[in-house]
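re: ur question from the group chat, yeah i did fold both. here u go
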Amino acid sequence: MSPAKRLRPRKSLRTILILWLLIFSIVPLAFITGYSLVRFEQGIDQELSTRLLGNAREIGVQLSEIQSNLIFETHQIASDKALTYYLTANNIAQAREGLKRWFNRSTISHRLWVFDRDARLQVALYKDERGQVQRREKLETMIEMNETLLKSINAKDEMLYMNIASDTTDNPGKPRESRVEFSVYTKILGTGGKVVGYVEEAITLDEYAIQNWGNRLNVEIFFFQPDKPTIVATHDDLALYKVDTFLPHLKEDGLFELNIRSNPYSLMLREQKWGDTEFILGLGASKSATTAILKNVKFAFFTVVSAIVFLLICLSVFASRILLNPIYEVLQAIEKTDFDQALLQIPTTNETELGLLAESFNDLSRRTFESQKALRDKIQELEKANNEIRDTQAKLVHTAKMASLGQLVAGVAHELNNPIGFIYSNMTHLRDYSQKLVHLIEVAEKHPEKLSQEKAKADLNYIEKDLPKLISSCEDGARRTRDIVLGLRNFSRLDEAQLKKVDIHEGLENTLQLLTGELKNRVKVVKKFGQLPKVNCYPSQLNQVFMNVLSNAAQAIESQGGEIHITTRKLADERVEVSIRDTGKGMNKTTLEKIFDPFFTTKGLGSGTGLGLSISYGVVQKHGGDILVASEVGKGTEFKIILPVDGPAESKKTVAVI
């Protein structure tokens, strides 16, 4: 069967397509609609629960802040030297005046009481509705702490107390006033830690304050203690319920329902603590609004679903009659196309949007093919250029190393020239002395009678004195030559190309020894080495960094009398720091920002490659460390090389300029 016959739609296929569209669109839509309504209702309850839980957390945080502020303020009052003195001297009037001034500045508490050492109230201050500090003189000397409260205060630095109370009245026309009071007690200590009094600071939440709190959060709030009958609430009817009504719901984590004046409410209970006092915080929200919203949402859902079902039926019919044939034409064209060809082109025989889509596909296919071909060519060019750059970079690094090696060899050659020179000059005298001594031996064997005369002629006494000096001088020169060669071998450490734990100080000393010719009689080196652990590193590469930095420091000092300070120390984060500071000419900000750039140099033409610090940068980065530099014109430059003790890490390190 040909592709055209195989893909040509039949009338039965159109019917199946319509049924398929209706079944697999209307049925899921009906299921989604019902499920969405159920989930929406659950979501409303969940949102309500989340909101009440968030409000409970917010109230808990605010109570915690109130607690912290009250504790802080009571400690401030208790630590007031003047108050301690007045209480010790029983000068209550002066203490009261000082407390009034302090209490007037406080924005937290509503009541401030101070007791003497016998736990009798001496100062009773409170703030009225306008925030003015008032005195309750009638309460002073009439109130005394009970023994249980006093023992609790003396056992701690501070004691937190919470009480829910209701003021009863004999006047039937006056409503009962309930309130929640949070207070903090703190001891006032005098000389020697002796208790001279007690301070109590409290904040009172009456029904009006709790009502404002509830209005701001748009919830109903109520407080009660499990062992007391009083309930303080924003809603009057909530205060009429008994505590036993709510206690069974304490173990429930979610919401529970309660009808208040025929209105459904969702309530949540949370246990809270103020010090050692436990109380219950209740939050509630009316469900009248959510019920109305849910009703409107259901109506909107069913309306939308009905409209969608109608549109789906129409769409199924039009899709089978209008869209199906052009789609199969495109599929037939695609099936006839040989996909093994490099470029895929679909014949465009349809002038509808599908024909435009086929043309766009052909254009996209052609441009993609051309772009891929151009991309392959570019990749080949980039690979070739990258190989050339790598070769050039390797040659430049080799050139920089050879230049550095040339400078090093010149310094070593200069150092070797001196001991070798005077060893060579001593050889003439040693040859002359040896010839004279051999002649004297021959005279002693053949003509003993002429020995005295030959001794005087050869000046044997001078030879006896000078010969040990010449030998010692040659030994010293040979020793110096050996030390220079040994220092060069230790510096290069060619046998240590792998990671190895080494002593940083040894590398610095070897580098300084090789730079002796450049430093001596001109630059003074001041070393301040700390206690360092051995560092896991590439020794020869690290010595090259020290050589580059120290050589630059020496070259920056243009006159005699300059100094190079080398300081080492161990940092707290398992790293070591090597600081190299010179008293040279320094660098300006522009130069400082470019010193790690390859080929950047401030030396004259032919005097430097500009790769020394760039290579040092790469070595320090390879070790997973940092290199920092600070400089000021006329005051010198300081390099700080920071290396991890455990060696290079996998994480990316940064090199900073400060």
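okk and heres the other one u asked abt
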Amino acid sequence: MRHYIILLFSIIAFAALSACNKDILNSQPLASYSDANVFQDSALTKLFVSKLYYGIPSDYDNYTEMLADITDEAANNRTFEIAYTINALQYTADNSPYNYLWTSVGYPSEPMYNYIKDCNTLLENVNNVPASAALKSRWRGEAYFLRAFFYHTLYNFFGRFVIINKTLNPASNDVFAPRSSDADCIQFMLTDLDSAASLLPVKYTGADIGRATRGAAYALKCRINLYAGNWQAASDAAQEVMKPTYGYGLFTDYGGIFQPQNDNNIEIIFDKQYIADGSSGQSNQIDWANAPPNMTGRATGINDPSENLVSQYEMKDGTPFDWTNPAEAARPWSNRDPRLEASIVHDSTTYPNVKSYVSGVPLVDMKVGSAYNPSSRPSVTGYYMKKFANPSFDFTSSTTYSGQNYIVLRYAEVLLNYAEAQFKLGNTEEARKYVNMVRVRNPANPQMPEIATGNFTWDSYTHERQIELAFEGTRIWDINRWKIGPQARGSDIYGVVVSGNNPRTYTKTVVQKGGLDRVWADKMYLFPIPQIEINKYPGLTLDQNTGW
């Protein structure tokens, strides 16, 4: 059910959204209008711009196959989902699960290049729109930002891309342009973001909240430079985002960042907007997908956190958790980094106080065969995901739709990006300072103790990034750019087996075997260019990624 949220604008209208305070979602059908019609009408142009935001990839759209499942963060409990195909390296350039991001052939959703085409169309026609100069300037900024974001998505998955910065004549050889160099691809995205930053406002109010801002342009510029190893440029962009002018900060409650009642909080730089209205097509099903089966009455709890990740959460005093310590192994989730409790459903935890399909005991029972962990389809790892959950969701209602926004860029990531860049520039103490900001989060009620002077290492940084950004869709790109695929994507995945009653016993165990369930080859750092696209080129001149 991938990309259920992407709509066929030619047949679906969204009149129901007109009363919603998220104007960015209010898109009417446009297919019946020519470009000339659209750009002669400011209302239609506004809808055209809003439609671009639907192209933003979101793990809430791919709720049954989150990116975490193809990293060491999680395992999918449905063996027919694409995570198993990817992890076992059972795909080729002909049938790669992510071909749909590049090509529309064989998949009903729109690929990134379709949205890039629309960005180009907007940029070429926006001056003709009967609208104020300020509004047309902002629309150009949105187009530049979103075009950079769509190319950023392609670059993460496939590496070098074909740069298309104008509408193409199908009869022209321009449609067979080669892939550009890494340097040119990166520079193209950064140039677009500079253009966006010069045109976009610092913030919006009312129904326009959720549109791209100047801060979002700099935050994405920071991420792209970081991924490219441009340390000083990444630092400079991060410092821009940190200026008081933008008003960003760390939300005091880590778990609350991702809950719908706190949408668009102080930490959010850019997100994909949703509303809990199934008829609109702009809802998601993240609560239903990840909740324990007894909450939903269905085979849910799909994306199961790994013990590999859970073991990384430190003790509350900042010391590592240790399964060989008898006291810690007897109560493995006691006195841990509070981000664990905010992110993971484990044995003996309390789940959010929601109305569930099957009422149960207050404490979660993760022993296989319990209501929470039924033997018909148990959690692969002995855990469920709590992060992103709405604590007020009603599973007894007829709807399975959620409305919390999907966070694409947030302030904590910018602080961590800055810390990484500073570390790479040799400024270890500066890096430590900003990692500690994220660890502490709320000085009035510290989340975790600071890392002491002299104790900060590269491992300190990567640990903090893994914990802070867990399940947010960035781990795979960190693994790929740090070239730790064999350790993080090709090794054993662990879970925990719960047994006994009084006392409970917990046993760490392998649930997916490295080299079998989790296979690694260096070509997996990039997905293959769809073979069907290569076949279109005369002489097959569109080059393929190494190894594919």
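fwiw on the second one: The beta strands are 74-76, 268-272, 303-305, 344-345, 384-385, 406-410, 493-499, 505-512. DSSP finds 19 helices and eight strands in the chain. idk if thats what u expected
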